[in-house]
Amino acid sequence: MNMRRIGPQLVAVAAAGVTSAAWASGEGQENIRIARAAAGESATSSAREAQKSLEEVIVSAQKREENIQDVPISISVLNGAALEKSTVSTLKDVLRTVPGVAGYENGQAGLTKFAVRGVTSNVSLFNGSSTVGYYFEEVPFAFVRFPVSPDANAYDLQRVEVLRGPQGTLYGANSLNGVVRILAKDADLKQFDLKGRATVSSTRYGGENYRADAAINVPIVKGKLAARAVVGYAEDSGWIDLPAAGLEDTNDGELRNVRLKVNAQPTDNMKIELLGWQYRDERGSSPISRDDRTEPSIFPQAIDNQINVYGATLTYDFPAFTVLSATSLLKFRGTSNLNNPPGSIENLLTLLEAESVSQEFRLNSHGDGPYRWSIGAIYRDSEDRRFQDAMMNISFPGNSDNIFTSASYAVFGELTRSLLDQKLMLTAGVRYFEDRSASNEIATLNPATEIPFGVRRSKFDAVTPRFVITYKPAEEISLYASYSQGFRSGFAQIGDVLRFSQGLAPDVKPDRLSNYEIGTKGSLLDSRLSYDFALYYIDWKDTVQVLTTTVSNPAGTSTFFGAINSKGVEGIGSDLGVNMRVGEGWRLGVTVSWNDLHFSEDVFSGGNLLFPRDSRPPDSSELTAGADIGYSFNIGSDFTTEIAAGADYSSRIMVAGPTAATSMLGDDIVRVNLTFTLSSIGGWSVTLFGDNLTDEYGRVRPAAGLLGQSDRLRPRTFGLQLDYGFN
Predict the structure, then answer these.
(1) What's the pTM value of the predicted model, to 2 decimals?
(2) How many CA atoms lie within 13 A of 516 on its CB side?
(3) CA angle at residue 518 from 512 to 524, to 5 degrees?
(4) In the chain, where are the structural domains located?
(5) Three-class DSSP category at 274
(6) Exposure of 174 by Cβ count < 10 A (0-12 exposed, 13-18 middle, 19+ buried)?
(7) What's the fold here for domain 22-726?
(8) pLDDT tens readout for residues 638-662
């Protein structure tokens, strides 16, 4: 979790989404400066003009474009113009900057699991989908059983929206307590555009890192058809050694990214968008190590993840409403090796594959009448595969091949009625969801003995409502109160758990989260200060936690992980974000997000106490906070200089073991960053940066059972970045 300075214009990430400034968006200030300079006005005076007030930010969190101050949801927005000039390369790093969001990397898969307001999935990689919805454009990243999210390149994006709280009405089953929406830039139908950036940096205890990104926009038929392509490549040095194997810096990585977006507008009322994206991440191992930056394995634990995304979106504007059709295909493949137990000769090979097809239809009203509505339907067909091979292991040799499928559909609608000259708005929404899932497993023991467990089928459904009252006593102030629900589908236990628990493990029921929230957003002092505050209470029923089953064998014992439903988790929390201009050239952003989630009753697994009553759920932070300060000034009429510093804090998280006595705590994490940027009206900029200046190497999230190992931040890194744009 970090709140970092990204780019020559500050991205002020507020706890409830206050990023609405020309100086925050980056793009606004640059466009004003260039336009005024072209008209004969100096860059100095135009920059001062841009700094006078905060500019509005438009989001589409409610499936329509709105000013962020009018959306009764706790939202953070990361602006794409500033992300382009940032010193981060992937969205995993970006999302860790958002208040109320905590994330760590799963060492077995090399993928990231996120928690929003303390709500996250259980510690297992295979027992339940994510509690956070994750979308790239209109493409949902919703795995059937894997609670993790793939990464994405952060270059050439329009914006990233992070919605806190249940979004079950408009976004469905995986948005139990939040949604991440990644929106790439559309192809410009009229203008040619070419830009790029190159970065070189050095990591303490590691080596040099290199990154290059480029984007090109080409109008094919001016005003009608255009294509936008993005390519990226990065080499990251490692800093973790394997003394037993005589290897150094084994967690190095290579990332490749290619994205193509084609936009067409055959008529004034019709828009067509085609999207293709390929991403590959190859690494020697995950960033999991002991305190001395070593890992006890006797061989490298390589990770290779590949993502392919394809989407087609058609919109047509009628006089009273807009119709949208969104079709998508997601393919994922990941392989990893795990030395388990560490230091032994045993190896666990894991292959993860996923494919998901979805089709959504949506109708949105438009106009300024007293009623505003959205209705829609979606169908999604998904399949996950988990193959694990441990045939050469001594303690428990064998392999298993699991297929998890889900065929689901949903219908939804939302209606808003405005009263009192649009000062009072009443919103009601509802979604009906139905899921037919199945699990199939074939296990093979060594010597080869197949055990077919057969297909286990389940059906789950839910109705998730949403009610909101919004009141605007003044144009600059908004108050809201809301009740919303999130839902996550259930599933059948895998065959190994059923076999070794003598069939005592039932199907896992769906869990449901209710959120009661009041909040306010607004701006003061002639829009020089903006604020966002939310206070909420969470009631999370039937939370899915880990079931552990231990089996004895001649070489020792082996533990299998399934899932059980606990009675629930509850607690209050709050988000606060403030951004301000504190003088000409100065800006300050402060965010705080706190929650008091705890189990409402003792949770037992296999007769052992797993979570005592009133203890926190695993893998979630109680408090996250950040502060960011920047100062910009002009050098003559052609250059702007900015110095910025950011710091963030994330409180320690607990990782569950087989019993409460074996649970582990991570560390409080503090991260500090600093940048110095020189920008020219000619289109180029140069940035000197230092990340993790205090060389924080605490335990972000301890790795259960792995001899003191934990997910770690990259050590102190210094670098230089060059940006150039031409159009």
Answers:
(1) 0.85
(2) 5
(3) 140
(4) 22-726
(5) strand
(6) buried
(7) Maltoporin; Chain A (2.40.170)
(8) 999 999 998 989 999 887 766 666 6
